[in-house]
């Protein structure tokens, strides 16, 4: 990207934008109850509109293919498939997941996480998130605050700044439309149905949830952020689930909606198996296994999308030998885990230690075992990280996460995280980068 802002001006713009975004809720809550602002990357991620549109189409195909395959594997797959998809879950979570394919829609809202290869080319999908596909509010806070601050720095009027924000689009509004669209498919007739946003007590992302609720209220809905104990599902027309079932007391009122998604407009039903890395691996296999693709009912576009996934397979003793021998090519991930806690990068692991890591992973069947995935090397780029009281220059990796869903009113848009580590985490020495469509950036 050619950068029209001198570095000093860019830092001033980002500092103003960061303060506005933090005030709006771009924060996380720590377990001790304190609130921590999420750092903002000063340099926006400017992405061609065609790339964003292609990512949205591809994300929809990845999701629809994964849902079809999951249904087929649960019905006709082998014991290893069923164990990988259902084995990691217990209690209320396992009980509720038995109803997933009886629910009206397994995934109203989902997110596909990609990396942009260092050598160029289209984004490559790393995994699917369908349980809590977070960050739509964060994405708006980062991009809109940056655009407003940059417009002011360039002498644009408030009306011109508002036009730039409108052209950028709103992830929160996309989510609202998706929820209302789902409500309509269920026979709902209210112009502005009530929406409960359900999260665990002390949820780390409560700032984003409160911002979402505020947006819903601004659009005419009754909306509130509630815990499972506070949410009486029958009192709300739409339920937006931002809580893991394993963090829900089975006796809480909200548990009724988890157990009976057919009775409630619940987005999403308990669907953790959809983001199992083992399912992603089996979807990758569909590109080379016509029988598996046919059994799942994948259409030609879904199978082609499976072929564009990074090569991903369930780890076993046979594959382990290849993964050990080709250390730099591979990443290991536990099938059921989140937050990057069980990710091992061959290129960042000493050769002597790598063999031990791979052999231990091949024997470890907790959480559905491990998968081995082709490593997508993302570029590290110069970046200015804005945190409270700190403006730090360095180099950061960036990813791209694209929202999608199964219904016609599928949410769209993307968010960009940046981090010092190739396992991208917004608090791991990184933050959020404003994602600006190229057409909007040129107008600015």
UniProtKB/TrEMBL annotation:
This is Glutathione synthase. It comes from Anaeromyxobacter paludicola. The lineage of its organism: Bacteria, Pseudomonadati, Myxococcota, Myxococcia, Myxococcales.
């Amino acid at each position: 990207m050619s950068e029209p802002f001198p570095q000093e001006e860019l830092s001033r713009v980002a500092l103003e934008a960061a303060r506005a975004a933090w005030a709006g809720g771009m924060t996380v809550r720590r377990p001790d109850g304190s609130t921590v602002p999420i750092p903002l990357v000063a340099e926006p991620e400017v992405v061609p509109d065609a790339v964003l549109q292609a990512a949205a189409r591809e994300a929809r195909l990845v999701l629809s293919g994964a849902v079809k395959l999951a249904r087929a594997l649960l019905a006709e797959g082998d014991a290893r498939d069923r164990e990988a998809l259902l084995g990691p879950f217990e209690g209320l979570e396992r009980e509720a997941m038995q109803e997933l394919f009886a629910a009206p829609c397994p995934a109203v809202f989902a997110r596909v996480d990609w990396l942009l290869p260092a050598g160029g080319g289209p984004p490559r999908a790393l995994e699917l998130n369908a349980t809590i596909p977070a960050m739509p509010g964060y994405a708006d806070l980062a991009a809109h605050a940056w655009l407003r601050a940059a417009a002011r720095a360039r002498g644009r009027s408030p009306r011109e700044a508002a036009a730039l924000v409108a052209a950028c689009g709103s992830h929160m509004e996309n989510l609202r439309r998706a929820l209302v669209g789902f409500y309509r498919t269920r026979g709902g007739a209210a112009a502005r149905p009530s929406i409960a946003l359900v999260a665990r007590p002390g949820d780390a992302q409560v700032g984003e949830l409160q911002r979402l609720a505020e947006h819903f209220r601004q659009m005419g809905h009754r909306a509130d952020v509630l815990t499972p104990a506070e949410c009486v599902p029958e009192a709300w027309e739409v339920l937006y689930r931002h809580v893991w079932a394993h963090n829900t007391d089975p006796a809480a009122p909200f548990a009724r909606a988890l157990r009976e998604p057919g009775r409630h407009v619940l987005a999403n039903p308990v669907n953790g198996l959809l983001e199992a890395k083992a399912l992603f691996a089996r979807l990758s296999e569909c590109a080379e296994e016509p029988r598996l693709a046919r059994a799942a009912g994948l259409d030609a576009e879904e199978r082609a999308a499976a072929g564009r996934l990074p090569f991903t397979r369930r780890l076993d003793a046979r594959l382990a030998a290849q993964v050990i021998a080709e250390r730099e090519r591979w990443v290991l991930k536990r099938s059921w885990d989140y937050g990057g806690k069980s990710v091992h990068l061959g290129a960042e692991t000493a050769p002597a230690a790598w063999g031990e890591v791979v052999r231990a992973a091949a024997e470890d069947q907790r959480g559905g075992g491990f998968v081995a995935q082709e490593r997508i090397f993302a570029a590290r780029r110069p970046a200015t990280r804005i945190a409270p009281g700190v403006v730090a220059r360095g180099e950061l990796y960036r990813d791209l996460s694209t929202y999608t869903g199964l219904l016609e009113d599928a949410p769209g848009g993307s968010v960009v995280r940046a981090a010092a580590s190739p396992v991208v985490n917004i608090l791991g020495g990184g933050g959020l980068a404003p994602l600006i469509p190229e057409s909007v950036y040129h107008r600015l």
